[in-house]
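Morning. Coffee machine broken again, so started the prediction first thing and wrote up yesterday's gels while waiting. Chain of 445 residues, entered below exactly as on the submission form.
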Amino acid sequence: MNEVQFATLPTRKIFFRCALPGLLAMVVSSIYMMIDGIFVGRYIGSHALAAVNLAFPVIMILFAVGDMVAVGSSVKIALLLGQGKNKEANGLFSAAFCMILGIGVLFSLVGFLAAPRLITLLIKDTTLAEVAWDYTRIFLYFMPAIMPLFAVDNYLRICGKANFSMWMNISVAVLNIILDWFFLAYLRLDIRFAALATSVSMTLGVLIALTPIVLRKLTLRFTRPRISLSTTLGIFHNGSSEFFNNISGSFMSTVVNAFLLHLGGGTAVAAYGIVMYLDSLLLMALYGILDSLQPPVSYNIGAGNHQKAREFFRLSCKVTATISLVCLLAMVCFPKELASLFLQDNSEEVLEMTVTALRLYAPAYLFLWLNMVISSFLTAMDRARDSLTIMLFRALIFPALSLAIFPQILDVTGIFITPAISGALTVIISTTIWRRLGKQQPQEA
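Came back before lunch.
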């Protein structure tokens, strides 16, 4: 499928041609992240699992700016292609890719200067801090090579190459699993090699994704970078929702970990880490669907075909709601079986807390899907301010308020119910924005 067919094929056919490869790719990516956690927990120990969970927000902060450029430029590029402006789209694509490479180099250098101090500041346990730094610094070595991964994945989907994107992500996942097994299970090496396995695999993914672009087999190809100041600001503006989502999510993860360390120690942090590994399975599935649909939605809006965009929205709601309900039931009905995957036989205390955490966390999925669908479609419609508003309430404002109140009353339990409360409150905001948009501009909603 090529990008022109975004406007000519039936909506359902486009949906499944784009969403299924995106879903499979992201689910496989999430599974390899889970398997990474399983290898770390089983072959290094729960202390290493806790350290990874503490370090990961720092790593995500480093990726956040690159993701902002990736998402912001992808929407602009798809809109230009929908308007038939291929030359401008290629100039913008080339400029955005150069920006992302530059960000990777800069953040690698800044990371080595700032990350050790930041980790020490955030993690008072010296042993955990040392393990977290060992994990983080491997990613910093590879940052220039792996920073473009999420961007080139988006660019492939813009060109209608969803299947190629899927196989690229699957290749990354398979190599990561093989290297995890070799380094951690076979050679019994330390946490640095878990990070090395992931970094090498992501580098391979970038090389695979760039191959058809470099060989000029796609609509998007490298040309002389063409970008104006206003377009640059537009990219940062439209990608701001993704940026603040990453930043606020990382910030809140750091705050949650601090609460957990204070109220429940390393056991609570390890339990929360397992919940996050499992949670990533649903998040990546939903992101896989919604990110894959942003190019056809933006393309059709650029082409003036708003009815097809509305059809994409309704179908997205049905599919994401179904997936979310299945994940909710799995967490509620089989928490012990899920938690046991990550733990050694002597980790009964962590297992017990994880079972409780999963059951308390699961109701968040009743609300997550709708907030994500609305926010994603607003981004695809180039309405960054509305998307950013939803994200700030979902990922920062309501979680911060919940953490300020409920742990004081319910101890650790108050932390684990925060996502459900925040999600329920955010639904009120997101549906209000969506309905207001429908009244103001019914042709776009």
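Residues 10-440 form one domain. Going to sketch it on the whiteboard this afternoon.
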